[in-house]
Amino acid sequence: MADMDPFEAIRAAHPPTDLIENRTTFGGPDAELSIYDTYNEATHVRLQRSHPLICGMIRGKKVMHVESNETALPHEEADDAPTMIADAPFDFMPHETLIVPSGQPVYIDFPEAAPDAPTTCLTVEIDRDRIQQVVDRMNEHMPRTPESGAWTYDDLRPQHYRHLPDVDETARRLVRVFTEDRPYKDTLIDLGITELVVRLLRTEARTLLLVHSEEAADANGLAAAIEYIKQHLHRRITIDEVANAACMSTSSLYRYFRNEMGCTPLQFITTCRIRHAKTLLRAPEQSVTSVAYELGFSDVSHFIHTFRDAEGCTPGTYQQRHAPDA
Q1: Among residues 194, 226, 248, which one ends one of the domains?
Q2: Which of 111, 119, 276, 292 could serve as 60's disulfide partner, Cβ 3.0–4.6 Å?
Q3: Distance CA 38, CA 17 (A)
Q4: What is the radius of gyration, based on Cα positions, of the chain?
Q5: Is residue 180 domain-shared with residue 236, that is, in the same domain?
Q6: Residue 264's domain is classified under what CATH number?
């Protein structure tokens, strides 16, 4: 028999006592995981916690009202860049992530909640001191470039991410860890929380580098490397020339890419090419062959294989799905 969906299992084990934001909570070392289910439409429901809150939508739709002290940086090129948070409400949908600073109130509307289709969200509240411990370990074991400065956590600015599959997967995996009864449960929770914080901090650092690579290229070696890659996607790029653009050795280039971007330079080049390929393929006049050569692939079959590995479909299939009349 297939395993029951963990959220269905939680509802079965903990029948709801409230129809609006029914909360089921599981504690762990320096963190608390909560599952919220709402069974009726509602508006302006308040959510506020004492420590940073990582929210992930599971099912349904929420409309969030979040007051922002500082607008998050938008960036069209990066799938994992934060969308802008202003005073205007925004939709919060499944697989999206919202980070709420300590003590900041959030007001929520539930336009689609129903008894047979509850709106479900998970939150992970992490003690600020625990986050700082992770930050200190990152600075010790995976330092950023001197120009980028030390790792820090911004507990003042809310951020909304539409596409963070690694963070979403980590948060969902924590649901099973928090709810299972194992002798080493606390250790697994601690590891999961560490992974979640590291992934979020890397995402923010990567976004800032991508957004500011052009203006920061003269002062930041990693930004210079990123800008060089972005400007030369049309041809073969070697690691030596990227290292030269960054004014660092190839070993330093690999180390700082791993630490700050969470990938190797070659993986980043491939990611940039696939991202740009998706943009080009949305134009019906572009062929798969022309896109392959425009992005520096010397062999069309290699482009098709690389694209399929990244996107789960061939470039031709992607183009058909995103045709104007599709």
Answers
A1: 194
A2: 119
A3: 11
A4: 22
A5: no
A6: 1.10.10.60
Which range marks the domain in which residue 241 is found? 217-326
- Identify whether residues 170 and 37 lie together within a single domain: yes
pLDDT of 166 above 60: yes
pLDDT digits (tens, 9 = 90+) for 187-243: 999 999 999 999 998 888 877 777 767 677 777 889 899 999 999 999 999 999 999
pLDDT (0 to 100) of residue 268: 93
Strands (E), 29-167: 31-38, 42-47, 53-59, 62-66, 82-83, 90-92, 97-100, 106-110, 119-126, 159-161
Beta bridge partners of 34: 25, 123
- Phi/psi at 110 (nearest 5 deg)? -125, 85
Between CA 281 and CA 183 the distance in angstroms is: 51
In this predicted model, what pLDDT tens digit does every residue of 12-63 receive, in sequence order? 889 999 999 999 999 999 999 999 999 999 999 999 999 999 999 999 999 9
Domain count across the chain? 2
Q: What is the pLDDT of residue 3?
A: 61
Looking at residue 207, its amino acid is T
53-59/97-100 β-pairing: antiparallel
pLDDT at 77 over 70: no
Residue type, 163: H
Percent of the chain with pLDDT over 70: 91
The CA distance from 144 to 161, in Å, is 23
Residue matched to tokens 């980070």: 99
* Amino acid in position 289: T
